[in-house]
Write the structure tokens for this entry.
Amino acid sequence: MAGAMFDLCRQSRALYRAFADELFDATGVDVELSLQGHARGDWRTPGILFMGGESSLRALDAQRDCGAHVEAGQTPQSRWLPDEGQVEPRLLLEALKLAAKSAGVAFYAGCSVHSLHGAREVFYIASDAGSFHCEKVLLAAGAWSGDLSTHVEPPLGALPVRPVAGQMLALRPREERAQKHIVYSADAYLIPRRDGRIV
């Protein structure tokens, strides 16, 4: 179970407290981080109660053997992950956008990229907003990355990226703050937000 992705995730989580504080200092936006050891007060309990089948639980136990903090859950079909946490993604996006703008980043919303040509360290991008030259390009078009990869020179080859449909509800329970931690399974998850909603 140990590998580059596992190590990247653990290292990223370790940086998140300082990252959230840096964003708050730069923008005044609290991303509502709920994570062990984070100074900003919160009524929620950091961590995830994972409910799963035998193969999923074996995978978590393998992560524990590689150094992850995985505890027995309330039932044999569950595990408690105390080091996991959450942010409010809409607030995180707002904070990142404000911080980027203050650092001089330009945004072109609703702008299609038609082609991207690269030659060593200089890239040429043709888009609805005009043409641009840059030293580096990060291809992060989400579900549309596969479409864009066919317009890249030299060719990247088809990227096997596709959208996956899902449904999300936000509910406000009658008993406020009844659920204090994330509950996760392969089929669904329940996430308590700071304002009392359950997503």
